[in-house]
Structures are given as structure tokens and as C-alpha cells.
């Protein structure tokens, strides 16, 4: 059974349906026959972890991941075991979108690494939720305009696909973000030697494996600062930093401000 939490919009064809959920691991949506052909889902994960399954495929969804799902195919999605999944979502008609923004796969997950792009996505979804709730003049057109921006950002990221072994290494880092990185274990999981993985990872992403992990941690910390009331020390530990001073240095390096200053700046926007 699908839970509706802060869900707005209409069920009529072509009207935007949108919402923001924060749900435990009992949350499951199972559609064995899919939905209408004129229905796609876009979802953006804010915190925790979810999953989506289509025929023969399963994707894990972590903070900063965009999901594009052709909802006409059989599918299921929900919260991963032991997790809370916080995400925003919208149903939309593909007929009203630029076709070049829609992937050919039935389910596509695009990790959004750039912090400014992530903020743009959150702001765009915020506009969708407000317009779909208030239903002022041209509300549906405004929703589609904001969703077009989200899909354009996702399409740009999808166009930058990298070596699948590096993608898998990044996925494993994100899934085990709270744990210390062990390059030997990571390399074995993707079928490469430690030295080859380190070289390929740096060559492809421009970052070392350790730098990439620290970047994931501080991006997650920034999302938690924005969307929760937790203190910076608690957040630092939750995302995997064992040393608070190291967390502060990494956070300042990426965002140019302390966690307190970053949160204060968000309130002023």
C-alpha cells in the first residue's frame, strides 16, 4: 500500500502528483503490472537509503541520487532494511517533457555529485510541492517547468557515465560510507588490483578514493544540516568521520564555511 505523506497534485492525465516522504523500512510500493503508459516517476533521495526493482534489476538509492522510472513497467520500490528513506518525488507525463531528457532504460539512477546541482534540484522540487499544493494560476505549467530543470540536470549527469568498475566502486563507497575505506577489499569487489583501481579511479574522477569518500561524507553532512536539526558533531559521526577536527577541515575545504556557518547561510537564502 502506498503511503501518502505531504502528497499534492491530481490524478488526471497530465497533472503533476508530487510529495515528500520520510518513511521506515516497512514502506514498500509493489506494482506488478506497472501503471499507465503516460506515467513516469522522478525521485530524489535526501537521506537514508531506498531501492527500486524492475524486471531483473535492482538499484540502491542513496543521498543525492536521482531516480527516473518508466512506471508503465512492473516495478517495486521501498526503504532498505534498517534504514529511514527521506525523498521527494513526482509523477509526470513524458509527453510534456523534452524527449532527450528521458533515458531509454526503464529505471535509471544518476548520482548528483556537484553540490550546487544538488541544491538546484532541492529548490526545484520545493517549487513543485508548493505549486502542486496551492494550485494557483498555471500551477501545472510551473510544476513541469521545475521538473524539466530536474530532468535536465539528471540528463547531464547520465551523459557523463564513467567506467562501470569505477561506478561500482563509488556505489560501494556510498553504501558503506560510515566504515573506514579498505582499498584492497574495494578492489577485490570490482575485480581489479588495488593499484589498478586507484589509478583508474583517479584518472576517471579526478579524485583519489579517500578524497572521493570524504567528499561523499561531507555532501551527506550538508544535506543533514539542511534537512534535520541535528548538531554538527552528531552528523560528523553519523556520516563516518571519527575525528571531529578532520570533519571540520574537510567541510570547510568543500563549502568554504563551518557547518554552523553553512546552516546559517541556508536560513538566509
TrEMBL record:
<dbReference type="InterPro" id="IPR050204">
    <property type="entry name" value="AraC_XylS_family_regulators"/>
</dbReference>
<dbReference type="GO" id="GO:0003700">
    <property type="term" value="F:DNA-binding transcription factor activity"/>
</dbReference>
<protein>
    <submittedName>
        <fullName>Helix-turn-helix domain-containing protein</fullName>
    </submittedName>
</protein>
<dbReference type="InterPro" id="IPR018060">
    <property type="entry name" value="HTH_AraC"/>
</dbReference>
<dbReference type="InterPro" id="IPR020449">
    <property type="entry name" value="Tscrpt_reg_AraC-type_HTH"/>
</dbReference>
<dbReference type="Pfam" id="PF02311">
    <property type="entry name" value="AraC_binding"/>
</dbReference>
<dbReference type="InterPro" id="IPR037923">
    <property type="entry name" value="HTH-like"/>
</dbReference>
<dbReference type="GO" id="GO:0043565">
    <property type="term" value="F:sequence-specific DNA binding"/>
</dbReference>
<dbReference type="InterPro" id="IPR009057">
    <property type="entry name" value="Homeodomain-like_sf"/>
</dbReference>
<dbReference type="Pfam" id="PF12833">
    <property type="entry name" value="HTH_18"/>
</dbReference>
<keyword id="KW-0238">DNA-binding</keyword>
<keyword id="KW-0804">Transcription</keyword>
<keyword id="KW-0805">Transcription regulation</keyword>
<feature type="domain" description="HTH araC/xylS-type">
    <location>
        <begin position="167"/>
        <end position="265"/>
    </location>
</feature>
<dbReference type="InterPro" id="IPR003313">
    <property type="entry name" value="AraC-bd"/>
</dbReference>
